[in-house]
Specification:
The protein has about 375 residues and is an alpha+beta fold. The protein has two domains: about 110 residues, Alpha-Beta Complex (Aspartate Aminotransferase, domain 1), CATH 3.90.1150.10; about 240 residues, Type I PLP-dependent aspartate aminotransferase-like (Major domain) (Aspartate Aminotransferase, domain 2, 3-Layer(aba) Sandwich), CATH 3.40.640.10. Helices cover about 35% and strands about 15% of the residues. The protein has twelve helices and 18 strands. Strands 1-11-10-7-6-2-3 form a seven-stranded mixed sheet, with helices on both faces. A four-stranded antiparallel sheet has the order 14-16-18-17. Strands 9-8-15 form a three-stranded antiparallel sheet, with no helix packed on it. Helix 7 links the parallel strand 6 and strand 7. Helix 2 packs antiparallel against helix 9. The protein is globular. The two termini are about 30 Å apart. The relative contact order is 0.19. It binds pyridoxal-5'-phosphate.
Length: about 375
């Protein structure tokens, strides 16, 4: 592509380096991170009990306006627990999108359920409410107020859309389809910290949601995740399951079911608290970068993935659309060779060996995006 050289030199200009390697996304740890970590070490509270754990939960709940926030060791097990407490049982089906990171799909399997793939919308890269409704119309029937797949006879318990790169999917429409068909809505908001739709934080539309704080996300706890929910009972269940299902007692080890060791340690929460203090700065900085990209790509043969109306995107990873798969591959080849890190969007889940036999609807949009979407450098610039 003729434009590649121009694009790469613009990215170098934005990141102010003529020859150094430019990563896709790196954390920025210049706030109170060291101070809070030192407090953990000095106090000896480095593990899953400590003041930062509770404080971090409170602050994330406050920021997202979710009633409850429950920390986990990572986003993947936050998704796993969300599915369990939302009532997903062995043998159930959970509808999700094929265009996502592997953890979405794996978490469904950890809950002993089966992922079913339904298409995405081109302009959100997230689950399409239209495709969801069409799928349910054709494949499901109601039995005693629950949704069943007519062909497999499995219960369709939940739907788990994902907000791709921090862009909101059509979450309100998805919610209304879920309500109509008696399906629980669980949001994979792993990439959505700091993103809002109609002024409401992503992950606060469905019954329950998970956010990730992995090192490559917009803010990090090293490794970590959090569950958001407004439901008191679900919140209590999630916290209980994440702490080995230990029943409080003065000295006895009482456990009332098979729980997990999923609670985030204090040192990770300390890091998270310091990161959260700077989230608004990160967002402002990244939104400015996105706006520069947007202007640059206007009138180009490459299009920039814009923010849609009513959404306020965190622009965690900026995305561009190339003409076709051939152009995409050429661009990936040239940019990475030139030391500007770029990555394609994920391979569709239904193409991976573990998931190729799963039930799916037509996936035209997901396939179209898979051929064209590339992420370009998106770190906070100082
Ligand atoms: C990052 C991510 C996860 C998993 O989060 P971890 O904290 O890495 O376990 C899940 N789903 C999506 C869409 C993600 O991007």
């Amino acid at each position: 592509m003729k434009e590649t050289v121009k694009i790469l030199s613009y990215i170098r200009e934005l990141f102010d380096t003529p020859d150094e390697f430019i990563p896709l996304h790196v954390p920025n740890l210049n706030g109170n991170e060291k101070k809070y970590l030192n407090e953990c070490i000095d106090s000896t509270f480095v593990s899953s009990v400590g003041k930062f754990v509770d404080l971090f939960e409170d602050k994330v709940a406050e920021y997202t306006k979710a009633k409850h926030a429950i920390v986990c060791v990572n986003g993947t097990n936050a998704l796993h627990l969300s599915l369990l407490v939302a009532g997903v049982e062995p043998g159930d089906e959970v509808i999700t999108q094929p265009l996502t990171f592997i953890a979405t799909t794996n978490a469904i399997v950890y809950a002993n359920a089966t992922p079913v793939f339904v298409d995405v919308d081109i302009d959100t890269m997230g689950l399409s409410p239209k495709a969801l409704k069409t799928f349910l119309k054709e494949h499901s029937e109601q039995r005693n107020g629950e949704c069943y797949n007519k062909i497999t006879n499995n219960r369709i318990k939940a739907c788990m859309p994902m907000h791709t790169f921090g862009h909101a999917c059509r979450i309100e429409e998805i919610l209304s389809v879920c309500k109509e068909y008696n399906i629980e809505l669980i949001e994979d908001a792993a990439e959505g910290m700091g993103s809002f739709y109609k002024g409401k934080h992503l992950g606060t539309f469905g019954k329950i949601a998970a956010i990730s704080f992995n090192g490559n996300k917009i803010m990090t706890t090293g490794g970590g995740g959090i569950i958001l929910t407004d439901d008191d009972e679900l919140a209590a269940k999630a916290k209980h399951l994440s702490t080995q299902s230990k029943v409080p007692h003065k000295w006895e080890y009482v456990h009332d079911n098979i729980g997990f060791n999923y609670r985030m340690p204090n040192i990770n929460a300390a890091l998270g608290l310091a990161q959260l203090e700077r989230l608004d700065f990160f967002l402002e900085n990244k939104r400015e970068l996105a706006s520069k990209y947007s202007t640059f790509f206007k009138g180009s043969e490459v299009s920039f993935f814009e923010e849609r109306e009513e959404e306020q995107c965190n622009f965690w990873l900026n995305a561009i659309l190339l003409k076709d798969r051939k152009e995409r591959d050429l661009f990936l080849e040239e940019s990475n060779k030139a030391g500007v890190m770029t990555r394609p969007i994920w391979q569709l889940m239904n193409k991976l060996p573990m998931y190729k036999e799963n039930v799916k609807g037509p996936l035209t949009n997901a396939e179209w995006l898979e051929d064209r979407v590339v992420n370009i450098p998106s770190s906070v610039r100082l």
